[in-house]
Amino acid sequence: MKRLGTALIGCGAIAAVHLQAIAKLGLADLKAVVDTDETAGRRTAHQYGCDYYADYRNMLKRSDIDVIHVCTGHYLHAPMTVDALAADKHVLTEKPMAENKASARTMLEAAAKHTSVQLGVIFQNRYNPASVRMKQAIDSGELGKLLCMKGIVTWHRSPQYYETEWKGRWATEGGGVLINQAIHTLDLLQWFGGEIESIKGSISTDALEGVIEVEDSAHAHLVFASGATAVFYATNAYGVNSPVEVELVFEQGRLHLLGDTLYLHRNGTSTVLSEPVPNDLGEKSYWGVSHGYQIRDFYEHVLEGRPYPLNGPEGYKALRLVTDIYESSRSGQRIRYTSP
């Protein structure tokens, strides 16, 4: 099978997860990394044996690069993706796809225009074994109709976490706990629940007031077209990063995900359906191992010429939810989904 030439933009914390996955693929050769921080960029290039660029636009001129990984601040996702697609490069961008809906739509328009290449959005938790099993239970109907769901994220972010040029600001991060940390859980809820009828939510800044201009806590209530409902709560104001909790209640049982362990509660008995897959990410262990699964899936779709399902429109759904919670909080009104 052909090997693809690859480059990565943004040598921050998440970059290592992408680069390690690329190295293990056997489907790609890393050609370059890009970062405006020359020290970080050159160190990463030396570690992975590739070229370094300070300006991503110079890297895009190379004909031996087929795929671009965008791992930068949220506000840079859209312009970099649009430029890469125009340069005939496939793009796999970290979540959220952009800092707001308007920027995300420029990416959707570029992907629709440049049909010879593909745009993928990282939501690696969809590839977790437990998530796959939960989706299977919904699609198969093995537990009857899905009635309701809940998603709870209680994590911790210190003031020092926001000592960067872009985090904690509406213009560059696009929000706080919702758009950066809890978007994964929101994405799972909408992936499980299907078409959304309405959402109402509220945000606040409880522990980081005076440190950030965005929210550190949020809650929401979702109604799905199927009749199912969901409640959601997320905060960065907890004292530790505790395991994410997702519960799905069906007519004939209940699936309870705590961290990466999935339990089935049915007829008075509990069964473990899925257990955590060990990783070596240390304090970032909550990222899980599924970046590698998603990256491999993206590359296989590109190499085989198949449309990648977690594409721009699919990635846009979670961003829309996040921004609609912000709008609902500002207006005090429920957002109804009559059109995209």
TrEMBL record:
Pfam annotation, one family: GFO_IDH_MocA
Superkingdom field: Bacteria
Keywords attached to this entry: Signal
Secretion signal, residue range per the UniProt entry: 1-23
Domain GFO/IDH/MocA-like oxidoreductase: 133-255
Residue ranges occupied by any Gfo/Idh/MocA-like oxidoreductase N-terminal domain in the UniProt entry: 6-117
A GO term, aspect molecular function: nucleotide binding
Protein name (record): Oxidoreductase
Organism whose genome encodes this protein: Paenibacillus tyrfis
